[in-house]
């Protein structure tokens, strides 16, 4: 791809993303109440996305060696434990990522 084509592709993707994000604002701005299905989706989707991310992160776990599953298991427990302790998403994500990186780079070589 040439540089011009890359810029065109980036512009198209940006326009589509902007349109998708702005659609609910334009669609529901004239209504007094939001439909029940949209409210239900708004309550359900964050939990579904978190479950999807957990499955995505743990999909590569291998039980053939200790270094295949221990770093992921320990980091997952640290993430869940720190979230239950402080109820701060960013803190738990950073703590779990840091523990995982330390484990795979220093402990389980």
UniProtKB/TrEMBL annotation:
Report TM segments: 6-29, 41-61, 67-85, 90-108
For this protein, the record's Pfam families field holds: AzlD
State the UniProt keywords alphabetically.
Answer: Membrane, Transmembrane, Transmembrane helix
Highest taxon of the lineage: Bacteria
Q: Does the keyword Ribosomal protein apply?
A: no
Q: Can you name this protein? A: Putative branched-chain amino acid transport protein AzlD
From what organism does this protein derive?
A: Aedoeadaptatus nemausensis
């Amino acid at each position: 791809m040439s540089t011009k084509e890359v810029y065109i592709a980036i512009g198209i993707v940006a326009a589509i993303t902007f349109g998708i994000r702005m659609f609910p604002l334009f669609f529901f701005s004239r209504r007094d109440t939001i439909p029940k299905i949209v409210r239900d989706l708004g309550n359900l989707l964050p939990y579904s996305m978190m479950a999807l991310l957990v499955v995505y992160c743990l999909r590569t776990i291998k039980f053939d060696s200790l270094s295949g599953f221990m770093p992921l298991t320990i980091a997952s427990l640290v993430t869940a434990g720190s979230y239950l302790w402080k109820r701060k998403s960013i803190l738990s994500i950073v703590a779990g990522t840091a523990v995982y990186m330390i484990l795979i780079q220093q402990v389980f070589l």
